[in-house]
Amino acid sequence: MKRVFTFLMAALMLALSVPFGVTANAAEAVIYVDEANGNDENQGNSATSPLKTLTKAIEKLAESGGRIVLISDLSLMGTASNPYTEPAHKGNIVITAKDGDKDYGATLKLQGAMVYELSGPTEFADLNIDTGKGNTVIAARFNPLVMGEGLTMTLQNLILVGGFEAPKKGTSTNQNSSITVKSGKYSNIVGFSRTKGEAGTVTYTGTSRITVYDGTALGIYGASLYNHFSGSTEIKIYGGKVTNVYTAGDQTRRLNGTSLFEMHGGNVSTFHINNAIGDTTVRLNGGKLLKINETNASTTIATLAENATRTVYYNSAAYTAAEIEKLAGKIADAVHGHGTVYVKSGANGSGNSEDDPIGSLEKAIETIASGGDIVIIGDYSIQSITEPAHVGVINVKSGKLVFAKGGTYTLNGPTSLATEISGEAVINANGYELWTKDGFDGDDTVIYGTTEKTGNATLHLGGNNIKAVYAAKDGQNSGLTAVIEVSGASVKTLKATENGTTDGSLSLSLTAGKIDAADLTGVKGALTVSAQGGALGSITAGVDGKRPEGAEYSLTYDTSLFNDTLFATILPLFGEVSNTKVVYVSDNGNGNGLSVGGATTLGKAFVMLKETGGVIVISGVTTLSSSLNCAENVAPVTVTSLWDGKDYRKDGAYILLGNNWQFNGEVTLENLNITLDKNAPLLRFNNNNATIG
What we know:
Blueprint: E1 4-7, E2 30-33, H1 54-60, E3 66-70, E4 74-76, E5 84-85, E6 93-96, E7 107-110, E8 115-117, E9 122-125, E10 127-130, E11 136-139, E12 145-147, E13 151-153, E14 158-161, E15 177-181, E16 185-190, E17 207-212, E18 216-221, E19 232-237, E20 241-246, E21 259-274, E22 280-295, H2 299-304, E23 310-315, H3 321-328, E24 334-338, E25 340-343, H4 361-367, E26 372-376, E27 379-382, E28 385-386, E29 394-403, E30 408-410, E31 415-422, E32 426-428, E33 433-436, E34 442-450, E35 457-461, E36 465-472, E37 481-497, E38 505-521, E39 527-531, E40 535-542, E41 553-557, E42 576-578, E43 582-585, H5 602-608, E44 614-618, E45 622-624, E46 628-629, E47 637-640, E48 642-643, E49 646-647, E50 655-657, E51 661-662, E52 667-669, E53 674-676, E54 683-684, E55 690-692
Parallel strand pairs: 1-24, 2-3, 3-6, 4-7, 5-8, 6-9, 7-10, 8-11, 9-12, 10-13, 11-14, 12-15, 14-16, 15-17, 16-18, 17-19, 18-20, 19-21, 20-21, 21-22, 22-23, 23-24, 25-26, 26-29, 27-29, 28-30, 29-31, 30-32, 31-33, 32-34, 33-35, 34-36, 35-37, 36-37, 37-38, 38-39, 38-40, 39-41, 41-42, 43-44, ...
Antiparallel strand pairs: 48-49
């Protein structure tokens, strides 16, 4: 399998909700059960007037739901062929030995090798459970099952089943299961059904969802354990200890759909991608995972799974790239790293949470060198800082960076800034890609794309105020490029170079925000200017008032937004002037499509150009996983990865064509990398003119 390693810009960290024990409240219905001294003729609403049986208690709470408090030990009996089955109930039932004021210390005694069947949403909490001998089963029958806090078991022989222990004929196969574990010890946790039953071998099409916050389990199976085939699974571990986690079941019991495995804490010895026909996604945010392996029980299953992808996302604050390579390097088709570190001046913590911040911005960057978020808490003072080297995008956000006079911030990898800047700061992108985003505000901030004559500059300017932007300090050598994209920032002065001229090229794109004065004089190489939105106060260009001999100058602007007089003095310099509308497209984009950083989807791009026509620039990986029937365009549309002198294919841009693509107007496809996914998709031009260059 071809492996691609990238680092995400979007945060993958999920908020961890701490599970709390169940406590009674005034609005909750409470029924007491005393098997030794109760009577089902009682009201059951107090410990002095308890019911005798669990069955009667559930019947009383069938509509409203509520808490069933065991004030003495309760024994249940049932076999696989004749299980104990709850009465049907719509309300959520909590079976416990606590009523909020008193712990009765009761034990729920389940006869060994018995089966307990749910008939509605049920939770067990703050309770001793005697599981007897043999395999004791709680079968949810596709009702929500919660094993809450405060559970203790005599043996580790309890099996939780999201579906049926033994499905009967006629039972629905398109159902979802939900099992949540907050305490206790278990033999196995099974997403779908367990044994064969009178229904024979069943193929399920729903999704099993298993979430573990605490407790221990020998095995978790996302699919059916024996005999059956299953749909999809989502398994999430926040704590506890699990020996083995399987996407599917035992032997040849396959999972036909997709599988998701997340770790946010806890310990898992091995995650098995077994018999997984569909795509598998692994998200590692925390916890300890010793091993990942992939197995298929037969060549038939291996053939069915040969086009499935295995993708790993990991928190680089919790795992190193070397650890992930060891875990998933031979299995994953793609690995994406991301993390979050919290920073506060004077702090001395780990940086793993807002309550435990680290005190050094440099140390924070080292921690997530694979890419991630740095959250600044309050004011963080800077004299001068050079980032430690990092290969992934570092997103610095929130709070305020307070610079001493003349203080500098020098990049040593791709960086995004979404924080307020105080003081006369100098930010040197140092040839690396720099983004300023919402939250960035630097009235007295000067930004350099590069201060080296051999450096490139790539600046994406959003957010708020910037005093001055220079693509280069003292010019660039020929053959090197500067790209400046203003997509929301308000820039007072923008210049190609602070001093002298540059032999390199410059591409300026204005899609939103404002440039008071764009001074593009001194560019001896190619100059490309595109104004598709925003506001522009003035613009100058050329060298000594002329276009340098041999230099290619091109200008594109939206005539509905910009007056021709704005460009009147520089129009003679440009060999090419057009009002072509340009839309940028990438999977990672969620913007208006008017800039690389604000890329949109391919479908939306055709909608934007349906009246005017124009150019769609594939600026990143663009996936067509489902069929796309493009909006009808009355003017020609060109789809390309080469625009304004920049070839986005060199940065990894391509179209992953996984389904049919249908056009409803004249179209040109050129300068594109197109990769076919699992299927054999079709390009349908519907009798429209089409050019494939």
